[in-house]
Amino acid sequence: MYEFLIGTFAQTTPTHVIVNVGGVGYILNISLNTFESIKNLKDGKILVHFSISENNQSFYGFFDENERTLFRHLVSVSGVGPSTARMILSSQTSKELISAIIHGNISLLKSVKGIGPKTAQRIIVELQDKLGKMNTSEIASIANTENIQTEQAIQALEALGFNKTQASKAIGTIYRANPTFQVEELIKHALRIL
């Protein structure tokens, strides 16, 4: 029904963005990853997922197609609603989520607030099949959110004594917002937030 919105970002917070499209303000719920990508932008294009429940209609916005694809997979799982899917996407990078689901890493999914062992298991059982049916290039497209530079920056932070998960999350966030950054710039910005 709705594919995307292009307009001015009237208000951007870690949980939502208000997009002014021709004088109409649309409130879109967003993940922290999308927030990091758009927080310094005044306008732009946001991909949309329109959610309708028994007593609510909501827009969910995404900076890129990879995140929206993962969101749609997550909400297809029994017991995982849009708010829970957004929380999952806020807690991990797309690459980490794909890897956790494919490799059955329940502990990573359980680390998300509100996700218990049964829900984590259900996500893995239901989505391993769906992701398994995707061709290799589709999975690579979703999982390939980091390049050689980000890998080098993560390794450097690990060498400095930082936890790999925290380093990966910080570098991923910085890289999505600043894809032209070199390794040194990624490390400098990561050190400010770690």
Describe this structure in words.
The protein is an alpha+beta fold. It is 54% helix and 20% strand. A 5-stranded mixed beta barrel has the order 1-2-3-5-4. The radius of gyration is 17 Å and the shape is flat. The mean pLDDT is 86.
Task: Considering the chains and any ligands shown, give keywords for the structure.
3 domains; DNA polymerase, domain 1; OB fold (Dihydrolipoamide Acetyltransferase, E2P); alpha+beta; Helicase, Ruva Protein, domain 3; 194 residues; flat; 5 strands; 5-stranded mixed β-barrel
Number of contiguous helices = 10
- How much strand content do the residues show? 15-25%
When the domains are counted, the total is 3
* Radius of gyration, whole Å: 17 Å
Encode the helix/strand succession as letters: EEEHEEHHHHHHHHH
Mean of residue pLDDT values: 86
The strand count comes to 5
For the record, the CATH architecture of the largest domain stands as Orthogonal Bundle
State the separation between the terminal residues, measured CA to CA: 40 Å
